Amino acid sequence: MHEKEAHIEVDLPDNLPLILADRDRLIQVMLNLLSNAVKFLTPGSGLIRVTLSRRDDGLQVSVADNGPGIRPEDQQLVFEKFRQVGDTMTAKPSGTGLGLPISRRIVEHFGGELWVESVPGEGATFRFTLPFAPVQPPAAAPAE
Ligand SMILES: Nc1ncnc2c1ncn2[C@@H]1O[C@H](COP(=O)(O)OP(=O)(O)OP(=O)(O)O)[C@@H](O)[C@H]1O
Ligand SMILES: [Mg+2]
After folding, report:
1. Is the CB of 121 under 6 A from ligand 1?
2. Cα 53 to ligand 1 centroid, rounded to whole Å
3. Are 19 and 106 a contacting pair, CB within 8 Å?
């Protein structure tokens, strides 16, 4: 196993509203995004930034790296099963090409969206949203 050095920055604000989702499935999504970021980061000067932020109707999670990025024409393809893109001469990606399609299915199952933003040469940022849990109305007081 090849050791890679990377800086990881994490920005997790407190007191965010709750979301309703399956913890293990979200861990699976995060593991895939993080392992992808590690796989493609710039050797020696790798940087990964994980950010959690509040949007109008839900949370947004971003995993950004400073690797080679993904060409615009490939940015939809990476969400197709078994698709691996990029320069296969210099960087043959390991894995099966299932992580992103599965991650998108999981996020959509919980009512969110998963997409990528990338400028080739400057890295890739994967983002997903998850809607806030509906606020429970207070239980009615028992009748006297
Ligand atoms: N952070 C990234 N930077 C550059 N390319 C990426 C990044 N993340 C994904 N890709 C591209 O998208 C492809 C699909 O990613 P996906 O996670 O679905 O599969 P994988 O990582 O190759 O395999 P698996 O997740 O099944 O182990 C990758 O093979 C790679 O070509
Ligand atoms: Mg993967």
Report:
1. no
2. 24
3. no
User: Nearest C-alpha to atom 12 of ligand 1 is from which residue?
Assistant: 78
Q: What is the CATH number of domain 6-131?
A: 3.30.565.10
For the chain, the structural domain boundaries read 6-131
| pLDDT tens track for 22-52 | 999 999 999 999 999 999 888 888 999 999 9
- The torsion angles phi and psi of 127, rounded to 5 degrees, stand at -130, 145
Query: What pTM was estimated for this model as a whole?
Result: 0.90
70 C-alpha vs ligand 2 centroid, how far in Å? Answer: 14
Q: Is the CB of 33 under 6 A from ligand 1?
A: no
Q: What is the pLDDT of residues 123-140, one digit of tens each?
A: 999 999 999 998 877 777
Contact indicator for 70, 100 with CB cutoff of 8 Å:
no
